[in-house]
Structure formats: structure tokens, C-alpha cells
Amino acid sequence: xxxxxxxxxxxxxxxxxxxxxxxxxxxxxxxxxxxxxxxxxxxxxxxxxxxxxxxxxxxxxxxxxxxxxxxxxxxxxxxxxxxxxxxxxxxxxxxxxxxxxxxxxxxxxxxxxxxxxxxxxxxxxxxxxxxxxxxxxxxxxxxxxxxxxxxxxxxxxxxxxxxxxxxxxxxxxxxxxxxxxxxxxxxxxxxxxxxxxxxxxxxxxxxxxxxxxxxxxxxxxxxxxxxxxxxxxxxxxxxxxxxxxxxxxxxxxxxxxxxxxxxxxxxxxxxxxxxxxxxxxxxxxxxxxxxxxxxxxxxxxxxxxxxxxxxxxxxxxxxxxxxxxxxxxxxxxxxxxxxxxxxxxxxxxxxxxxxxxxxxxxxxxxxxxxxxxxxxxxxxxxxxxxxxxxxxxxxxxxxxxxxxxxxxxxxxxxxxxxxxxxxxxxxxxxxxxxxxxxxxxxxxxxxxxxxxxxxxxxxx
Length: 460
Prior knowledge:
Helix content: 25-40%
Number of strands: 22
Strand order of the largest sheet: 3-2-1-4-5-6
Number of helices: 15
Distance between the termini: 16 Å
């Protein structure tokens, strides 16, 4: 597939690297020759030093042959302009990055389609939705909802062990650590599936003989009515509900997060050191959000504002290290739910080692949205996980696809693929090896490694 990316910033560079590794034909356009030269030497891509909205540059990049044109420069107007030009010059599909919430309204999305832009991405809005979903429960690291929230995939950290497995750890409530998945299935029925485990930096697709160990990050697929059972079995009954959140940093992501969080929280505060920005925020955030002027590390100010009453600390400054440290400090003070924006991929392992909680990365969130357009199957959603080399995708089963021919255990699916759940005629259910899929089923798949594209052929 021929893909042209306009803009070699953070999102464009991440996309170029990801698509290059996926053996796509990628051309990256940017006006910064130095940046392109570095990437051209590092990646197997074509680079072109031109202004992204240059008609001459687009023609030189052979935009008329492009299957997908992606405009992700920092300038919204430039993105819209070059995406529309690319469409008029023959690009098959176009995507533009924006930062105006008004553009994302359904009626306006249709307007942009008429203008030649098939899809708009607003990374801050997508990230805010992830923050809100992950903040819903303090004991869950990350959560993804399907079928209107009736079908769930969630990750939970195993901090404690059953005393028969590791005597020095005394929490008797964790009824999963130390047992194999077969044992867990026999003891607790089939109310949930363990679709993956992250252990020592590696995400694995487990079989029935795999044991859950202390400090594992376990990915569950379940239905909403079984959520409390997972909470109890993982020893998280004492984790509080999240009703009070403090956001550190007053950037664009914090603005969007305030709106999403107010939909599920009773109280949201934002702390921002710049006085002018705090004044601007008053008109941008949701009406129920309180704005504080100060530093996120000012202990006296935080204590005055009820720091210890917060159930969630969400660090969204532009400084990855500051965000990580803010979450470490919060966890040491007993705050269960912590979320950090971490844009440098090299810091992911450090964040995981420090056990800071949920990691948000706008580049990967935007890439997930775009990657869905590369799949030939009917895909509603794709999530590239920041916490492991894995993807979660929701495929719609097409009539006469391979998946309708045999039960799942006979499909010879790629190694590392685990189909956890599905919705059929609006009803959510878990999936087993003997499940027979039907046309129209919406199937949630967990893929470790680079198996998502291999899976695509089974659903197209």
C-alpha cells in the first residue's frame, strides 16, 4: 500500500516508523531537511523536503498513486488544506489531524467528507476518552469498552499473592495469583477470559497451563455484570471509587480530559503554574472544573486543596519525567489511581518498572485510529497498547469470510491471537474454542507481536 505522510513531527514520525516496520510503501513530506535526513537514514522510507501544502511537492510525491494520505503537521489549517489538495490530485483516502473540537461533531464530519477528507483525528480528544475510561475504576490499569460498555477488556496489576504460593505476602483476598488458568476456570467458571499477561516486559498469549504470578499485568475479557467478580478475585475490594481527580498541567489534553472526566467524576481540579494560562482555562474547561494556580509539586498547596482526598492523580504536563515522578509521589501517598502522559517511548519500561499506573501516549492513540484504515477487514476499532507490544481490534465478521467456515479452535489462527469476546444481535458474550462465528458478529481480538495484519485475511 502506498502511504504519504505530511508532517515529520511526533505523530508523523511514529507513524512512519510503525508503517515502515509493517513493510508499507511510505513517503514522508516535511520542510525540515535535517529531520527528514535523520529519519531517511534510520527507516526504510522515501523522504521529500517540501512544504506539505505545496501542490508541486504533492505531485512529486506521486500523490495520485496514494492509497492513503495522512496530514499530521502541527498546523491544523495546513493539514486540512493539503488533505483536500491530495484528494483532488487523486489520493484514494485522506486523513487530517485537527485540534478544534467543533470539527469532530457528526454533522461537521460529513461536511469534511464532502470536501474530500474521509477522516479527522484529534489526538487530544482520543486520549481524553482513554483517560476517562481508565479513570472509571481505581483498581483497573486500562479499560476498553465494546458494545456500548456491555463487553469489556481490562488490565489489572497483580500486586499480591495467595499465601499458599508466596508466604511472605499476606493478602488472602487475591484468589488468582499462583494458580493456572485451567485451575481458575474450574474454580470460578467461565465468567471471564485471561487473554494476555505482561510479565518482565513481555506480553504473552497464555495457555491453560500458565500460572498468574505476582506483579503480572493481566488482561481480562468479560461482560459488565461480571466486573465485580474480577475485582474481588484480584484482591481489589478495598480500592475506592474515583470521585475526585486532580489534573497536573493545563494543556489542550487537560482541557479535553476535564470534559470527559466530569461525565463520570463529581469533582475535577486542574493545577497550572502559568497565570495567563489559568485565566484562559476558565473559558475552556467544563463548568464544574476548578482551576488552581501553582506547581504540581507544591506540597503545601496540594495539601490545602485536599490532595489526600483525591482518588486519582492525572499528570498531563509536557514533561514526561515530571509526569512519572508526580505519579510515583502520589502512589507513595496512598493514591490508588495514577495516570501519566508519556510521549517518549523509551520511558515506557521505566514507567512500568516504577508501577506508576496508566500510561497515555497521544502518538500511539492517533496511530491506532489511522492503522484501522489499512486493514482490509471490517474493523470498528483498533487500540495499540502503550503497556505492551500488543493490539486490540474489533472486527465485524463478513458473510463468507473464513471465520464463518469453522469453529474458532479449527481456524489455525496466527500464534499470539486470542479472541476473547463478541456481540451478536446486541448481546455481549465470551468466546470459546468451540464458538462458531456468524456474519455480523462483532469480535474483540487481542494480538501480541505484529499479528494484527496476519489476522486481517481471516475476516475480509
